[in-house]
Design a protein that fits this description.
- By secondary structure, the chain is of the alpha+beta class.
- β23, α19 and β24 (about 655-660) form a beta-alpha-beta unit.
- α1 crosses α15, α2 (about 50-85) runs antiparallel to α4 and α6 runs antiparallel to α7 (about 200-230).
- The radius of gyration is 36 Å and the shape is flat.
Length: about 950
């Protein structure tokens, strides 16, 4: 049968099938998208933050429509006008004829399709800027003006970026319209190229000239706005307008903006007059002017006027940078305290610092996680984080620093029991808070728990111990059941073998309800699990808990915040809650130096995180948030109500933030100064502690944070700041504080690991309802004299590692297949100097072992001591009597660990060989003998024979005493 006589009916029958399949596919995709959207609605509504989602969606949709129309309409109008005004009888060449034949069937599709496609891209782009648009609409003045233009800082933070984005968007619209106008006119003969001659019809000339004029007009506005951006852009020396910017770049931008607007006017004149010469000459003039005025002239000024006299020329602008940087990072009120640190460890030196000495934390949160796991994990399906947190509690009328962690779920521990039913219905929550005293240890080196066990026992009072919302909670859990039904959720395991476990049923309001088939289907699609829809365990009272990480929950309900990388658990008002610090920040603060947030907060406790907003030059801890560990309730408190950025977002989301007056005294007692903010501030103060432009320019007193002294030599990780209860000079009593140290910022052979500064911030917010303590957030910077050589952490660690007595004892500890682990090296300003304290842990190489605190290293000046307890070490270091008692009380193993014992207790936690360390009296004599030898060598070098004889006699007397003491100790041991 010929092709002409084939039956067309099969192809006609296939067409409806294809259409049906396409429609079904579209409906399925649409329903999947709808499921995600509807699940978000249910989640936000249950949490009470639906207004946040609705505001964001309305803003996104509105901006999408604005962007779509703003792009699609001008593009369509440009193509339409070009087509309608085409010359009807234009003589085209054969090539254009062929183009028209090919394009004509697609003309209508292209005329509408191209604007629609470009409009969609533009709409998506503008919708992504919803936060900038809302911030602009609700902007709040800062009340501070920039020194160059005299404009409020809010102009640079809220307005300038918005205006520049509008101009950039409009420029893109006009440019694309212009290109399509040229292409359409060329295709239909309104623009013809004949040899070296270009012939343009009148209609094409008018349209192209007006479009070009609009584009240049926008460039003039853009150049004019660029002058304001000079005060926020990073220069070679500092952020902000420099001498060259003020005297060459900014005046040049005025001129270039005027030229661009003038050329735009010439194009508008061309649309009327029809002459291209003047606008083309003007365009060339603009390009040449841009090269000369915008590039060459500033280079000449910089090279021949500024660089020969940079220190004096840049001084006033550098001073602006110093002042505004300190203001933007909140370090302008830091109290600098000259501190001539003593280096001689005299007897009784710590008497005035007894409270600080008693609070020195020996339990290292980075090292004792394994001890928590072995002593308090109980079952393989529980876990503790690798790095624990530091908090404080009022116990028996005294503030006690504590190492805390939540006993969270670890579903990987279920192994082959990890069925869908077990992982989502049975194992739904962690259980309890475990807390250990920071300054105590048992007689064998274990932590001393002040809260522990299953069920919970301890000194923290009664509270809800179940953790449905934690850092390691399952992806989702289905909880809840009708009243009277059998509980199926594992509450906690039995305390002894053979006894029954305890089940519970969630009774809070923690997630969307699965009370009908439709919501079950929605979440079955969201989590791609048919079991949610089919399982009998899902009933009309079931709730689905997801997005359970505290930081994730706060981020979703407060999208304008950047959150601290560390959240920590606390018992507050009978509830276990997570406390999260939120920041408002910008990179548009005039003259403020920009800092990489990820690099600033990276240290030995955490690598540099990947952040969407990294370069910043303004930061405030504007929000404190809590997340209830039982029901996931999120509460946001406006902590810094004076912050203009927070005030702006309060206008956008007026019902989401609680005032600080709503915070209970119990919550106040647990909030703290956030570590990430402190790390950023210490990075800034490394240079900006210098407040005068001349020494700042020469970097003669630049500091840096020391490297982690316990890390391998090749590591560049910085030493983290540490939370301690201590009394800084200028304080009336000890306070919960966060501190860090500074050493000179030098490289290579010139690097000196000596202390130059000690920065601490008061982190105690008090314990009054809705009232922050006056001292909270006070920064104090101890500045050490240039001629002082107080050793830095690196020097002290090297001295610990190389000391013969310490090395001998450590070698003994390492015998018997044990590892010696140096804990955090703390620096405490006591005794008129700086005391270094480092716990030393011993860990057996056995599989179930964990680090045990066995020794304590201390240093003051050039003297060190190494004893079983901090109390003993301090007495040895300070000539037999430090004047104060340390808080490292030794208790019997198991004390404070009520609630059961581990299922798999640690075996062989240390070696049976116990090293013989010098007694306190012997160590004191050794230290004195070491000093006598140093005095003897110094007298010999200077030729002072009188001093030489006195030192020699003293050394001989000390040797005699040590021999006699050794004999008496030997006799006593027998």
């Amino acid at each position: 049968m010929s092709a002409e006589t084939q039956d067309p009916r099969p192809s006609r029958r296939r067409a409806p099938i294809a259409i049906t399949i396409g429609v079904v596919a579209v409906l399925l995709v649409g329903f999947f998208l709808f499921a995600g959207v509807y699940a978000d609605i249910l989640w936000f509504r249950q949490l009470g933050f639906f207004d946040v989602l609705a505001t964001e969606w309305i803003a996104r949709i509105a901006l999408f429509l604005i962007g779509f129309v703003a792009m699609a309409l001008p593009v369509w109008a440009s193509i339409f006008i070009a087509y309608r005004t085409r010359p009807v009888y234009a003589k085209l060449n054969s090539q254009l004829d062929r183009y028209q034949e090919v394009f004509e069937p697609l003309r209508r599709l292209a005329m509408y399709g191209v604007p629609v496609v470009l409009g969609v891209f533009a709409g998506v782009s503008t919708a992504s800027r919803w936060d900038a648009a809302l911030a602009w609409l609700n902007r709040t003045p800062f009340g501070t003006t920039d020194p160059q233009f005299g404009l409020d800082v809010g102009f640079y933070v809220f307005e300038l970026p918005f205006y520049r984005s509008i101009v950039g968007f409009a420029s893109a619209v006009v440019l694309l319209s212009g290109l399509l106008v040229i292409a359409t006119n060329y295709l239909y003969g309104a623009i013809r190229v004949s040899g070296r001659e270009v012939v343009i019809s009148k209609s094409a000339r008018v349209q192209i000239a007006i479009t070009a004029g609009l584009y240049l007009l926008l460039q003039g506005v853009s150049i004019w706005l660029d002058q304001y951006a000079t005060v926020t852009e990073q220069g070679t020396l500092f952020t902000g307008a420099s001498y060259t910017d003020v005297n060459a770049v900014i005046p040049g931008q005025w001129i270039l903006a005027a030229i661009a607007i003038g050329v735009a006017i010439l194009f508008f004149v061309t649309a009327i007059m029809g002459r291209w010469r003047l606008p083309l000459v003007g365009t060339v003039l603009l390009l040449v002017s841009s090269l000369i005025i915008g590039s060459i002239y500033p280079w000449v000024v910089q090279r021949f006027q500024v660089e020969p006299n940079a220190r004096t020329a840049e001084a006033p602008y550098l001073q602006r940078n110093i002042d505004l940087t300190r203001d933007a990072y909140g370090v302008d009120t830091v109290e600098e305290i000259p501190y001539a640190a003593k280096t001689d460890a005299e007897p009784g030196a710590l008497r005035a610092d007894a409270e600080t000495t008693a609070s020195i934390r020996l339990m290292d949160p980075q090292q004792i996680s394994q001890a928590f796991g072995q002593l308090e994990q109980f079952r393989q399906y529980y876990q503790f984080p690798q790095s624990l947190d530091v908090d404080r509690y009022e116990i028996d009328g005294k503030s006690q620093d504590a190492i805390v962690a939540v006993r969270d779920l670890n579903l990987e521990g279920l192994s082959d029991a990890a069925t869908w039913y077990n992982t989502h219905i049975v194992y739904t929550h962690g259980y309890g808070l475990v807390a250990a005293a920071g300054n105590q240890r048992s007689s064998d080196g274990q932590p001393v728990f002040i809260q522990s066990g299953i069920p919970q026992t301890g000194s923290l009072g009664e509270f809800e111990p179940r953790v449905y919302f934690g850092e390691h909670s399952p992806n989702y859990s289905i909880v809840g059941a009708p009243e009277g039904s059998k509980a199926v959720e594992l509450d906690y395991p039995s305390g002894t073998e053979g006894s029954e476990r305890t089940e519970t049923t969630f009774t809070g309001d923690g997630g969307p309800k699965l009370d009908n088939a439709f919501t079950k289907l929605i979440y079955a699609l969201k989590f791609q699990s048919e079991q949610i829809f089919l399982s009998d365990a899902v009933n009309e009272e079931s709730q689905i808990l997801y997005d359970r990480d505290p930081i994730d929950r706060v981020k979703k309900v407060a999208p304008y915040l950047e959150l601290d990388s560390d959240t920590y658990p606390s018992v507050v008002d009978g509830r276990l809650v997570w406390i999260v610090d939120g920041y408002t920040m910008t990179d548009q603060y005039p003259y403020s130096n920009k800092v990489s947030l990820s690099e600033a907060i990276a240290d030995s406790e955490g690598a540099a995180p990947s952040l969407a907003f990294d370069e910043i030059n303004y930061i405030r801890n504007s929000v404190k948030a809590t997340v209830d560990a039982y029901d996931g309730k999120v509460t946001l408190y406006a902590w810094d109500e004076s912050d203009p950025i927070l005030q702006t977002w309060q206008k956008v989301f007026p019902s989401t933030l609680e005032p600080i007056s709503k915070m209970s005294g119990d919550l106040m007692s647990h909030v703290r100064y956030p570590s990430d903010l402190f790390k950023v501030q210490r990075a800034v103060l490394g240079r900006y502690h210098v407040t005068d432009a001349d020494p700042f320019y020469s970097r003669e007193d630049a500091w840096t944070t020391p490297k982690e002294p316990t890390a391998p030599a090749q590591s560049n990780a910085l030493q983290p700041p540490y939370y301690l209860t201590m009394q800084m000079p200028g304080q009336d009593s000890p306070a919960y504080s966060l501190y860090s140290t500074f050493i000179p910022d030098a490289r290579g052979e010139n690097s000196r690991n000596v202390l130059r500064g000690y920065l601490a911030v008061d982190s105690d917010a008090g314990a009054s309802d809705g009232e922050r303590s006056e001292g909270y957030g006070k920064l104090r910077l101890l500045t050490l004299p240039e001629d002082d050589n107080v050793p830095g952490p690196g020097q002290v660690q090297a001295k610990f590692n190389s000391d013969p007595t310490v090395s001998q004892s450590l070698n003994l500890l390492k015998q018997g297949q044990s590892d010696v682990i140096n804990g955090n090296l703390l620096t405490v300003p006591v005794g008129g100097g700086l005391l270094y304290v480092q716990p030393v842990y011993v860990k057996s190489t056995g599989g179930t072992s964990y680090p045990l605190l066995q020794k304590v290293l201390v240093a003051f000046g050039d003297q060190i001591a190494f004893q079983d307890t901090l109390d003993q070490a301090l007495n040895v270091l300070f000539g037999g009597d430090s004047g104060a008692s340390a808080g490292d009380e030794q208790v019997e193993p198991g004390t404070g660990q009520e609630g059961g014992t581990p299922d798999e207790p640690s075996t062989d936690p240390g070696d049976s060989t116990t090293p013989t360390a010098p007694s306190s009296e012997m160590q004191s004599l050794l230290n004195q003998a070491k000093q006598a030898i140093s005095d003897k060598q110094a007298a010999l070098a200077s030729g002072d024979w009188t001093a030489y004889g006195a030192a020699d006699a003293k050394l001989a007397d000390l040797v005699s005493k040590m021999i006699a003491l050794a004999e008496s100790e030997k006799t006593a041991g027998q």
